[in-house]
């Protein structure tokens, strides 16, 4: 179903304090007051579909700051992939969240490769302290895993990447999801069944 006409909770909602942050596929993103889980209230909402394709996948706050990382998933059947990227949302005025920046890897390098080119998911852990403070680990399908510094939310900057090699006989790679463990290892899995890569971010 086209994202423009499908409104459904997609990536997992994230709760920080008494606020819940949600991605709604064709419905954009929302900030919800969840002080009372039996009587939640909408605080702020924004959608950009149309004119953008939508498919909003994940909405996550950056540490303890009033900024959010939001991804639009590159869909498989429409050539929308040059407009589905990572957004930074300014949520200082919660009732009026605003997009202030976007991130996309080198389009010319990846766009024509097999499979989807575009954002998907992030490592769902954006700490306020520690070595990964202000680093977003973002899966980008045929552009692999990207590490993006969001210390300046108006100017997200790539600080590292890992694009798996294409296995023999395979059309390509589709880096899909990313997890981590307590030792700082990253676990990158592929949508096309190309296995799992275990990585270490060295900065």
The dominant shape is globular
Alpha-carbon distance between the two ends: 40 Å
Number of beta strands: 14
pLDDT below 50 for ≥5 consecutive residues: which ranges?
A: none
Averaging pLDDT over every residue, what do you get? Answer: 93
Largest beta sheet, briefly? 4 strands, antiparallel
Q: What pattern of helices and strands is seen along the backbone?
A: EEEEEEEEHEEEEEE
The number of helices is 1
Strands side by side in the biggest sheet = 1-2-3-4
Whole-angstrom Rg = 16 Å
CATH class: Mainly Beta
The CATH topology name reads: Lipocalin
Strand fraction equals: 35-45%
Class of secondary structure makeup: mainly beta
Q: Considering DSSP H and I runs of 4 or more, what fraction of the residues is helical?
A: under 10%
Query: How many domains, as an integer?
Result: 1
CATH structural architecture: Beta Barrel
């Amino acid at each position: 179903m086209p994202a423009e006409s499908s409104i459904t909770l997609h990536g997992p909602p994230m709760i920080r304090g008494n606020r819940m942050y949600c991605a709604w596929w064709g419905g954009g993103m929302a900030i919800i007051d969840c002080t009372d889980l039996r009587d939640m209230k909408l605080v702020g909402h924004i959608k950009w579909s149309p004119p953008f394709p939508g498919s909003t996948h994940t909405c996550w706050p950056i540490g303890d700051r009033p900024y959010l990382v939001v991804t639009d998933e590159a869909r498989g059947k429409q050539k929308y992939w040059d407009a589905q990227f990572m957004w930074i949302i300014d949520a200082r005025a919660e009732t009026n969240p605003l997009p202030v920046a976007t991130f996309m890897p080198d389009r010319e390098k990846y766009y024509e490769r097999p499979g989807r080119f575009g954002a998907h998911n992030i490592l769902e852990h954006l700490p306020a302290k520690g070595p990964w403070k202000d680093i977003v680990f973002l899966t980008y399908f045929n552009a692999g895993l990207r590490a993006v510094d969001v210390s300046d939310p108006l100017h997200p900057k790539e600080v590292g990447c890992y694009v798996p090699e294409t296995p023999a006989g395979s059309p390509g790679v589709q880096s899909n999801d990313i997890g981590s463990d307590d030792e700082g290892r990253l676990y990158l899995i592929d949508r096309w069944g190309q296995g799992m890569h275990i990585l270490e971010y060295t900065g």
